[in-house]
Amino acid sequence: MSMTARDTRGVVMFDVAKLAGVSQKTVSRVVNGAPHVRPEIRERVMAAVSELGYRPNVAARALVTQRTHVIGLLAVGTLLYGPAHRVFTLEQAARELGYELALASLPDISSDSFHHGIQSLLTRGVEGIILEVPTHLTDVDDATFGGLPVVTSIGKIPGVTHQTVINSNQREAGRLATQHLLDLGHETVFHVAGPLEWDVSQHRRDGWADTLAAAGRPVPPELLGDWSARSGYEAGRELAERDDVTAVFAANDHQAMGVMRAMAEAGRSIPADVSVVGFDDVPEAEFQMVPLTTVRTDSYSSSRRVLSELVALIEHGESTSEGIDVACELVVRRSTGRPPPHRRD
Amino acid sequence: MSMTARDTRGVVMFDVAKLAGVSQKTVSRVVNGAPHVRPEIRERVMAAVSELGYRPNVAARALVTQRTHVIGLLAVGTLLYGPAHRVFTLEQAARELGYELALASLPDISSDSFHHGIQSLLTRGVEGIILEVPTHLTDVDDATFGGLPVVTSIGKIPGVTHQTVINSNQREAGRLATQHLLDLGHETVFHVAGPLEWDVSQHRRDGWADTLAAAGRPVPPELLGDWSARSGYEAGRELAERDDVTAVFAANDHQAMGVMRAMAEAGRSIPADVSVVGFDDVPEAEFQMVPLTTVRTDSYSSSRRVLSELVALIEHGESTSEGIDVACELVVRRSTGRPPPHRRD
DNA sequence: TTGTGAGGAGCGAAGACCACT
DNA sequence: TAGTGGTCTTCGCTCCTCACA
Questions:
Q1: At a CB cut-off of 8 Å and minimum separation 6, what does A327 contact?
Q2: Which residues in chain B have Cβ-Cβ distances shorter than 8 Å to A85?
Q3: Where do the domains of chain A lie?
Q4: CB-CB: which of B9, B254, B290 is closest to A289?
Q5: pTM score, whole prediction
Q6: Sorting pLDDT into bands at 50, 70 and 90, what band is B7?
Q7: Chain A closest-CA separation from residue B55 CA (Å)
């Protein structure tokens, strides 16, 4: 008589022990790969485990070991390419290190939902927290995170001790994009920023502004987008009205697409009349009707760094390194070129 | 003397009880909103809870209640727009119903990683499973899922009893797209399908083929993509070589973008020479240099349906409904138009 | 002695049951 | 008798202690 599926639920260690003719403790040893078990007995136990379809109860284990092996991720804007991509690479990195990810995606950028999210993670028993939210939300102290280690790629959080900051070099990335356009001969570069509540927006913008300033060029006021192609389109329409716009750096690829669309609609051709640079290198950027020049960051290795930092903090209570820099790279395609030869003064 | 952050970890119900001057059981009642507690005592307990920063231990609770309130999601291709979007809408829907999502994203479409994923979910103590993977992987029976309820939008799984199938109408969607192109006067429609291991690819393709057949039109062999813009581009280059191609239906928007790129490169203009329809209505589809005509499905309501089905199965052991249809809608933009007037025979 | 196994306590919370009003 | 609150047991597992080769 074989077990039915339903029965499987109720199989506990004791049942396995009984079937294998050993003590429950021995089963525990086998299941956890502990030493001091004769190979013969080990096999007998394993056989009983698979015969009964035994599966250890994580709740019971967590209760006694005081460990959950769960890492909390607090994120915003998970419907956007960047954040979504980040979630999945982090999830994969977590799995590789023997942890699971508990996701709390905030519905909006408010202090309320931030604290809600944190509470929810703490309640779920996470052992560490990854913060992928704007720092300005984090008017907090150690108590907010229940003393857990915190890792973030968005900048140092004042008042929190157990934290590591991964510098993903957004500023440098903004510099790369801008310098590329200047090198092509553009007088200056216009910028369609992301929402300024996001730290990355600020960093990319700062990189842009710094580069222009360093080159002694005028720094035009930036336009603001919300990461969407629509917002890029709207900004693009404004820019298309001015005939001194020959180069635009958008804070992400989707905004850049919107800019390109607006330019096309206004009869400005890309890159002959206007050059456009994006950010993210989304997979389809290369296959736009005008392939998009963009900046790519190594998000995989960044995620892996973030996670190994956090795991080190959790398991040894110490950080393996201080600031960590992640590489970024300019990918030049067809949407950028020399400025048009004839320009009014 | 206030508690430090670290101490917060060790606060248990008994501590709260002591501080409030009641029994542990009473604290339990208050925390769980159980009746038979005087308002006065309730408040006293609440005060103690927040003073100590008490937070219930999920593991202990799960152990005794035999409930985890966790739903498992098995998904593939989570880096793609469609699946990623689905994960986040499902996660939100789960939260709304008081559950959490445990995500297992498969690294590849193999039977091995499928079973690994399932095992991982079962070990995590999920109470139900959402399957977002190709059905052909599921050569399984009830035992595979530990007798847990299963919900899927990809089609009925043979051999599994506790399941509900949400029909997301992919076939109808393929029909919509194809009929739109025929209505515009195109002789026939070419198709760049997704990987045929994915059920949705098959359904969309079937909808396309059926429509052509029903209209008595030739059904050209479909080209195969892998969901990426690159694969769309490659298919597009093949199509661009033929001068009888005036209409293309791509199985997703990114493939459609690749097709458009290839056409542009070959000097075929859109929609004057070639019409292109995509699928998904990704947010940037509207803001492509030629805004993309596409098919949109209501993924939010679909996710909500999937989840409420599963929760009903978990909590009452029964399905609230049989097959469920989810709406889809054609969004006509600029990438489709009448076929070019002059065509060779 | 040193491996190898068994027995018992306890993790934190909830439910059955009992004891007061 | 109802409403309130407390006591004791239990969930499944791991660790500590101890017994046996």
A1: A169, A297, A298, A301
A2: 79
A3: 5-56, 68-168+299-327, 170-297
A4: B290
A5: 0.91
A6: very low
A7: 6
